[in-house]
Amino acid sequence: MSKQPSFVIHVSAECYPVAKVGGLGDVIGSLPKYQHQMGVKTWVVMPWYEKPFMKKHRFELVFEGSFFQGSQPLQMQVFKEVEGVLGFDLYVLKIPGLLDRPEVYGYQDESEQFMAFQHGFLHWLTEAGIVPELVHCHDHHMGLIPFLMYHAPKFFKLKKTPTLATVHNAQYQGWMDWNRAILLPPFDTWKWGLLDWGRCINPLATLIKCCTAFTAVSKGYLQELFVQSNGLEALFNMERAKGHGIVNGIDSAVWDSATDPMLTSNYSITSVQRGKKENKENIFNEFGLIDPKQPLLVFIGRFVHEKGADLLPDIILRICTELPDKLSIFVLGSGDTEVQQAITSLASRFPGQVAASIGYHEGLAHRLYAAADFLIMPSRVEPCGLNQLYALRYGTLPIVHKVGGLKDTVIDLAENDGYGITFDRNDAAGVMEALNRGVAMFKTRGKLGQLRKKMMQLDFSWDKSAAEYIALYKRLIEDK
What we know:
By secondary structure, the chain is α/β, with parallel strands linked by helices. The protein has helices spanning 23-37, 52-56, 110-128, 145-151, 203-210, 219-225, 233-238, 272-287, 312-322, 337-349, 362-371, 387-393, 404-409, 428-442, 445-457, 462-479; strands at residues 7-11, 41-47, 59-69, 72-81, 89-94, 134-138, 163-167, 213-216, 243-245, 296-303, 328-335, 354-358, 374-377, 397-401, 421-423.
């Protein structure tokens, strides 16, 4: 029996706590750590961002070099985090003017940024003679790496290295005009079709075409990619044999109500009733909510269409008019300006029942998971979802649209061994039906207490999923 992989590199645009925008950052901050604990040498390589993490920790320069992006010469540096505080080796790639900015996304030249990162990453490996056993690419930002490894002569030292792609969200694909092709390092032009999808360069499509295998972040989401993937349905079906579904996990050391330093009051399974009561009272006092004896419903996330955030104003209004003395609401998030304005307006209109915090605050998110009775997720697209897993860990009942990873991880109370509430009709009326079920259940305090203990004992840690990834690495390396 052959041994497990010994050296794997993850490449990603995000990694918590260095730089996080969404679930991708959480995954990259946890999966490599668990794999390292299982005996696999794991590196994470990501762009340099001007973030507090960079100032608080020590980095050493391990490589300097230069390359051309089109006709523009670019100087690059690679730094390694010295203290190993993340539980794996972290490397960041810095390019003045491109990869040295404060934000992860949102710049007009984002395509050039990530092209430069991918070119610089492969340039570093080639010049330094670094040959990992496998390169694990996350989402479209790293979508050109397998193509360049296999079809750009400059990187042929890496041609036999297998690549695994993970699709965290297929709605975002990195489209760019063909005039950007001149910015790529020289490649076998006979292979130009591998870059093309829909008459443009599509990095996510290229990633799926060229990788050795790909994963979706839940089995449910893998099946959805074949029928709903923002124009890539035919491609995913053509490459179906390469696909695997592995559900994300959570870092059970970070998300632990008994030790979480961000909570007002820590609690365990045996003290969950007291702990949630104290955390809820603290939130109510701080944000002007009136009656902590009411159940607290929270939404935590980005105000975007995929998350169903546009439904929130109607849902909140219905709660305040139909359930004025039965449910309090707290919304934490940011995104669509119309949704933001509507939510803040409702918070002003219904003070004492509705509270909102615009933006994302990690500490407040932890406190809300601990304080809440229910978490609402009306997502239209949810590849895996981590919020429902955090909620379960803190004894908070998830109320979720039955889609993607939510369908894989939340079992309705009406089923055997159920511990959540799911709904199929994803509109305000459908959500209200689910919320009424939750309110009715809240009144049965004895049942609620037992359910909270049951939720907190569920195991959604990375142990199982990290082992599945390692087993897949092993197969890909053996078959190369």
